Request: fold
Amino acid sequence: MNPLHISILLFFIGLYGVINKNNLIKKIIGLTIINGSTVLFFISISYSEGGIAPIFSKDISRESVQAMVNPVPQALMLTAIVIGVSVTALALALIVKIYEKYKTLDIQQLLKGR
Amino acid sequence: MVLLSSYGEKNKMKSSNIIKTIAQKLFPFILLFGIYLILHGHLSPGGGFQGGVVLGTAVILLFLSYGIEETERKVKIKYLSIIEVSIILFFIFIGVFGMLTANFFLKNFLPLGRTGQILSGGFMPLLNFVIGIKVAAGIFGIFYILFKYRGEI
Amino acid sequence: MKNHLPILIIILPLAVGFFILLFKKYIIQLSLGAIFIPLFLLLKFSSGFLDGNVIVYKLGGWESPLGIHLVIDGLSFYFSLLVLCAAVFIVLYSLYEETYPSSYYFYLLLSVSSMLGIIFTADIFNMYIFYELLTISTYLLIAYSKKGKSLKASFNYLIMGGVGLSFFLLGTGFLYALFGILDLPSISEKYLVIFSANREMILIAFALMIIGIGIKVAAFPLHGWLPDAHSLAPSSVSALLSGITVKIGIYCFIRLIYGIFGLEKYLFIKTEQFYLTLGSVTLLFGATMALAQIDLKRLLAFSTINQIGIILIGFGIGTKTGLTGALFHILNHAILKISLFFCAGIIIKKTGSRLLQDLKGFSRREPFIVLSFIIASMGMIGIPSVNGFISKFIICSAAIEAGFPLIVVIILIASVITAAYYFKIIYLFFDLSATSVKINKSSRRELASLRIILGYWTIYILTGISVLLGVFPSLGIDLLEPAVMSILSNFAP
Amino acid sequence: MKKYISILFLITITLIIIFSINLEFGKPINLEFANHYLNKGIEETGAMNLVASVYLDYRAYDTLIETVILFMAVYGITFFLRREK
Reply:
């Protein structure tokens, strides 16, 4: 097991939550887990053994560039995290609105009360 | 949900003087830290997004300790959406300006400067600033709206 | 001007969207302008694209795999033209439908802009981000009325769409881990070398991305969100979603299959069968489900699933004829479905009900709308002289050429079912036995006459175009010739 | 019943994917362009933080769309929850 495997595992744990949980908020938690797992996946594919953060400073000379990890996945994940936050926030707003209308968060009852 | 419902009944926030004082004293420092993160985004770990989140949480802290009415008086919330829209238009304008001066959309049109100084990296500090303001406004906006219009639960 | 064409087309609707949100004045004029100016620019340079020229735009001036590139080739030209033309009709119809505030036009412009972004981009991650923007603006448009049902439909779509895009992102991660780049043309250059070493990984990346986009195009087992989302939105939004947004998923399908994964025949032969099966099942399922509906817009939404199946079959055949048929069917389905949803919008507004049984005797009240509806449904069924027939015919002949006679049988069966459910509606239109035609009391008299004319004439024009394309199909087929060429050359520059 | 089927299904897919990952953790492959960012990043963009140089210069277009998405979320929440009087 390494982080690559764990991120795949987390992805499907989140998917399990989305599919099988009846509570809308738990579904959103599942979606958040899925999003987190993709972030973990991207970060772990860029990791190299003994790698350091791709940021130069006074202590880090230009020669140590060989030890640095790939900066691209990290930059991509900054974007993906913001998107995850946006989707989660929007989903929660929708849940508040749905709860106002139907007074329930249970998906079975929501499906019944068409 | 239980917590929020008890909130709704009283419809007024109460917090002790300790929390209020500490929040008030901490507020400028958190703000400073956020601004530091934004301004040094191209030199050190951090950047517009991270700094923006810190700025947003600083306002949220004030909000939590002082309650909704007082913060609304301090922070002009009706300008929030105007700030957000105009900052995105400014971002697009930066891109178009790069297109006009340097012939490519979102191309750096400022000199790169000496690496390691604040004013280096071309338009990166500018973009960091834009993103920082945007994210701070966004994070606070999400919190504020979800809190204020949380619905009768 | 020509150099900056791709970014101008994307950024104009985006910037104008924010502009109308800020100033809230001249909303309609500005949003029409934001769609017309890109359309005009695109048409001005259209002769170049029809000759097979390709524009590559380097954002920020970075060279090939370092930065993000925008590409307009034959395929993206065809799709962007489709999106912009459809958007013009949808904005004009929205004027009739209701006096929408600025937020509606903001969402509409942003969804148009993000569709154009997906179409032009040559970078997978950028595609993902634009897809996310498109989905978010779609959630907001679906739930625009804030009624309980549409909120539920929007939430359902949010969950499905979020999961689908996460699958897509994970697939992108696999590709990035293998290739170290995100640029589609660069990936296709390195593809054959890497494929031989990492067969399983590529297969998994392919599967993840196909599941992700499959949710977006509502292919059979993943269609659950579509009927609710497309039927509970306002009619103009339904037209947008069914007419063009679903096709964007198909566009991504084409880009990924013919740009990357189809380069190795080992994978492609297997997926060919896969597509045909998927398309046939989607086709039959959509048709049978539509037969059982009692709600007009829900029926039209299932009809979309039905037609998506035909388009997938066309791509599954994969020959030049098959691709031509599929691309032409995308255009035809967009025209027909948009006009059907507009008709449905007018019908619902006049009768105040969405149920089929309340349509009785509607032909007496709005004969021309009923005529347009009949022509459009003839196109959906595939009766000659309307454009839908031509593309179905091309796909069928391609299937026979490529040796899949069973597919023709399936398409014919589905067409018979399609005919059954559309004739059910048409029969109800002419069922004059109903003594009192149900009339919506709040039928809007206060509407300015110009807007009524706009609403009706968009439908008449769309019907006219569909008949025109049915009589002179070469008008449309000439347009998609470069698109087919660029697909068959695997988007090689 | 449906629950167990889905669990079985998800476990199967997870195992298939996990066993077919043949990436070695800690040894990324195909780094030629990553090395370009690392080696040339400072000269080309002038930033010490190379993540920022990718985020804000090489791929600034992504960042633009990302801010638009964040705005859409905020505006959407306001749109849903605000009560019109």
About this structure: The mean pLDDT of chain C is 88.
